[in-house]
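Protocol step 4 of 6: record predicted structures for both targets in the notebook before any analysis. Target 1:
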Amino acid sequence: MPIRQLSESVVNRIAAGEVVERPASAVKELVENALDAGAHRIDVLTDGGGRRLIRVTDDGAGMTRADLALAVERHATSKLADDDLVSIRTLGFRGEALPSIGAVARLTMVTRHASEPHGWTIEVDAGTKSDVKPAPLNAGTRVEVRDLFYATPARLKFLKLDRTEAEVVREAVRRLAMSRPDVAFTLAGEERAPVTLPAALPGAAGRLARLGDVLGADFRANAVAIAAEREGIVIDGYAALPTLTRANALGQYLFVNGRPVRDKLLLGAVRAAYADYLPRDRHPLLALFVTLPAREVDVNVHPTKAEVRFRNAGLVRSLIVHALKSALARDGTRAASTGGTATIAAFRPAAAGTSRGWDWRRSPARPGGRFAQLPQRGFAEPAQAAFDTGMPAADVREAAHAAAETEGEVSAEALGHPLGAARAQVHETYIVAQTRDGLVIVDQHAAHERIVYEKIKAALEKSGVARQILLIPEIVELDEADVERLVARADELARYGLALEAFGLGAVALRETPSLLGEIDGSGLVRDLAEHMSEWDETLPLERRLMAVASSMACHGSVRAGRRLKPEEMNALLREMESTPNSGQCNHGRPTYVELKLADIERLFGRR
């Protein structure tokens, strides 16, 4: 077939396929144009998920009559002062956005520039342009897109349900709203209730307020400030505590020079920074903003500008990892406030008629119940034994009185600590501590697991993990494949004080264990390591794989649930938690403690 020149209409539709994949793509392009025009307020209205109508109204600079006529021509833009495509300082610069939308839909633009006596309008219907005509408008620009893809019916078959497309539009607006907290946004349509995001104050407080409006109050309450700078590259934003996570990575928002992106390099850096805090099936919530000179990043490597390419990708990645790790280490002793909120909610009685919560009608003490028939006696009488649920596993009050003349002297000193003073151990698993303004419930195994893990890491950085030689080597029987994996990594395991060697075809001999773990179940530890190694991704860095070994060892070397602790052991554990980095969560991302404020407890009993 001979080569031929395509018609202008076909070229425009091909360009539309690159730029306008779905209604959300058109919304993104139009909102970016409004932001580049200096808008302070942007209103977005959709109908049919954007298929029937998209209307974007802004109060930006607007366009003159001549500019409006050029705006719908291909490769025409006001966002490039010269022909330098390397230094892009605007969100959008591709000239084919508006004409591409007009090639597959009915496009109407009304705009007014401050220098014009009135507004102007132009229409583009499936690529056919009308003349520029006068139109009423106070200021800014209003763009309407009707019957999207009506000129290319085949594209309509690939669109999802209206509700699904509306949700994608909502997500596109959310991303742009997070990047510009100084701009007010309104999103409305028949598919949803109107969403209004007022303009926030400048600075970090305004940014956190906007992120809280978009990501929710839980994110705002559990956000950690991120800040780092090196060689002209600035990283800032907010990340949630490791105890506030999601089952997918959709809660990770990344921006480069104000542009929302889904870049694999940046997402990989986030995973690396949280590798020491979260299991593989949990993902953090964060909003990171990368700012760097325009010439240091290429934003034109993807048709929708969803990905970017950095001149010095290694520096950007390392800076992100450093910034996140530093911030998480700084606030690592905090636990997510959602744990306390959920605990308080669990105490509240459910609504009448529901099957959840306490119901007086099911109580043995109700009128006619079996306890109601008991003779009326005092609380000191034997009848009260019916209500006795047993004593705590360990009670600190007696020991506290024995060590001091008055309970007030003990409380004055111990309650000054962040995690307070241990008062009891319940179910031989949880430590209940009293603070000045509430109480703390600690998971003793999770807390000690993090402490041991951090000790192993610290020992590695100094002189290595000290070993203790077993008097009699422990023989552990395994599958031959597991034995091969363990023996192949014997040198790596030796760095952590774990010395083992092959013992026949289907077993290994464990000869040395880390001394800081004390007496442990060596065979259980070896089996866990073999199981984890079978799932290792060999592309992971060696450090990540070794940290997984340390995590398994810490789990086996920590205080187990079900062990009764002495009062001094409980308080010692609380003090170690306060001085240990990242003690707010265990190695698996679970919280180590839950804090209940006295004010919340008083609300439960109607005191507030």
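Target 2:
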Amino acid sequence: MSADEPTFIGQVASVSGASVRVRLREDMPSPIVLVNGDSYRVGQIGAYVRIPLGYTQLYAICTQIGADAMPPTALPANELSHSASGATAMSGFRWMTVALFGEGVAKEFERGVSQYPTIGDEVHLVTADDLNTIYGRVAPKTGTVSVGQIAGSSGIPAELNVSGMVSRHTVVVGSTGSGKSNLVAVLLEAVSSGVFPSARTLVIDPHGEYASAVGDRAAVFRVSPKASKGEMQLRVPFWALPFEHLCGLTLGQLQPHHEVAIREAVIDLKGASAKRLRRVLPEAAITADSPIPFSIKKLWHELDEFEGMTFSASGTGQNEATRSAPIEMGDPEILKPTRYPPASPLNQAPYYNGKRRLIDRQLTMMRTRLKDPRFKFLFEPSGGCTPDSEGTIGSDLDAVVSEWVGHDKPITVLDVSGVPSEVRATIVGTMLRVVYDCLFWAGSLPVSGRNQPLFIVLDEAHLFVPDDQKGLAHDTLAMIAKEGRKYGIGLMLVTQRPSELDKTVMSQCGSLIALRLTNGADRAHVAAAVPDDLGGLIEQLPTLRTGEGLFLGEVLPIPSRVRVRKAANKPVGGDPLLDEQWRRSPRPSSNHYEAALANWRAQAVLEPVPSTVESDTKEP
């Protein structure tokens, strides 16, 4: 290769690891170079360059450009002259910094470099032929999905490596309105297009926006399903929650010794129920965290009765013989407490239970939660998952997991928008923990993660993996991020606030897809997690167009700026057509607010009633 080649633009001036400083040639007449009839602009941030080393071609990406300062007196006379436009010529030597990312030999490209350039090595522009080599267009490709086109290229499709995206985990970041929902919808369309007949993708949807984007390619589960659209009831059995989180959700804050006593009561109930399971468990394997059904109503009733019972004797004289007879018997199934003769305020019979725990407030909270219709999907799950008073169930967790990821559709959407916000993270953590543990313990079975990998897509990830607090969702997702690759469970985190996302979990993601980001703190957080030595590219993020993003890591052979295509079906979360809606005439009838109020009260979108489907003509 000769410096006379039209692609020659400079020489290597210094090398520091993967960062190479290039001194641009001084006799370049223009920053625009013509090669085989195509024009290329030298010194563009994000542009690619090639450094020939014998039969090997090193490839790098431009991350910074500039010019060395030089006092005017040291310049040649011709550089002190003015151009026809009146501008003074650039002083000093022009340079750019590039980051190495891969190498090619005989039309075969590979990420990473086996050798480094030295001072004086030539640097050349990357042409269309080089791009074809880099993106693997010289041979048919399998295991990829197309999401758009490489920006600034001549029609090269952006074909993402599905294996790298799933098994190495991916994080998608971008400000509101940058195109995140459209990108996720495009990815879901590509995965469910039929290229991967046995694909398993689980979408955690906090806003209920993706069901419309995937159509009949997905099984959709909601707290309040729409039967007309074939949606199914979301059920999360409470007895699948770890004890600590179940206790916090129902009873709130407890003293440590009270928590120990309640834990023992739960173990007793689960132990009795375990004897009725299809497969008998060894007693030593039963803990308060074991996903074994039990009657939580019975637990409440026993705890409440213990608090309310009175005795005819005090102190050590309190036993079964001196316990007062109930005034009215309770019923656990309807959460009716057993009533005892009220204790005397004076030091005389009947006496309070001397061992009572003084948790009346917590028990009231528990009873309220159990009766709250918003939590019916949890405490009274459908399909036979609600235990009777003896802990017997008609449908076990295997049926729940099979519903979620065992059907014949490539996508499952778990719409958690109807889950109360104060427990949403706990519920999401429970669902993911149930699926993860089930696939982990499947071992070598055909449905295990290793034999049929699972791809988990989590929208609004900063709500579930926050950087400043822990929880069930945080612990579960951190475990998946660290260990999921070995067991065939991949993760995609989607967020508009990367600065609020846990740094450790984010660092486990091998790929980063960054759409437009305008917040400085968010960009700094993303720059720290950028794979390879490409942090300088993050400065481009505020200037990206809507639907355009930087794809870094395992998803593409090289760091690329990609123009994502429009999804065939628009997610509900897309921007409303404001101009069109505001120009519409006549205005919608105010009668529709009645239906909106009914939906609000029911926490579900109800079928319209006649009074709310009148003509939209507004009365004068």
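Step 5 preliminary note on target 2. The first helix runs from residue 77 to 80. DSSP finds 17 helices and 23 strands in the chain.
Proceed to step 6 after PI sign-off.
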